[in-house]
Amino acid sequence: MLCANLIVKPLSDIHAAPAPDIIRQEADIHVHGSPHYTTRLCGPDAPERAELEQFIRLVFQRAYGASIRHFMPQLMSLRDAGGSLLAVCGLRNADHGTLFLETYLDAPVEHVIANRTQRGVERSDIVEIGNLAVAAPGIAPHLLASVSHYLHGTGTQWAVFTAIPVLRNSLARLNMQLEVLADASLQRIVPEERPEWGTYYDKNPQVMAVCRASRPDFTAA
């Protein structure tokens, strides 16, 4: 199976929903509730993959003048009841290879998290979130709700991502306990690729981590 569906409840209801029964790769995802939004988790060969990648390109180009060429193995999309694409983000398991955000770190991400939190962390318990693109800022919490259910359903302990202040503020409003791992510096990017990022790094992005024990309170959104 190349795609999996997730029916997302209204934000006011999500905090009470049970975690879905999900496995890490290409599984069916179900959260029973009002079908205001539909989320699909799509692999590299999914029929709609080109549409999702183009959406990411357009959002980054319009927001930062950036040219995105690399995409994560799994892309999660959020659509409204009419099928309009509202948001996309990428997911990559850390035990499948080097994470993009490790470019900004001086050590493997599991070591950085362990040093920061004084807790044992396995690489297999980490997933990277990236390629985050939304049609409007108010849409982000709905996509994050889907990501949260994915993390809890897979038993993933840690999510790591690069966030600009707008996203950090959205997560803070969900009462998520964030760990700042490092600044995401443009100087860590290969020189010939720096122009492709436009003004993104002017937004002061940071590398963040959140433990799934810090389940977000979606009633706060």
What is the topology?
Blueprint: E1 3-8, H1 11-14, E2 37-42, H2 49-64, E3 74-80, E4 85-93, H3 109-117, E5 126-134, H4 140-154, E6 158-163, H5 165-173, E7 178-183, E8 206-211
Parallel strand pairs: 5-6
Antiparallel strand pairs: 1-2, 2-3, 3-4, 4-5, 6-8, 7-8
Report what the structure shows.
It is a single chain. The protein is of the alpha+beta class. The protein has one domain: Aminopeptidase. It contains five helices and eight strands. An eight-stranded mixed beta sheet has the order 1-2-3-4-5-6-8-7, with helices on both faces. A hairpin with a 4-residue loop joins strand 3 and strand 4. It is globular, with a radius of gyration of 16 Å.
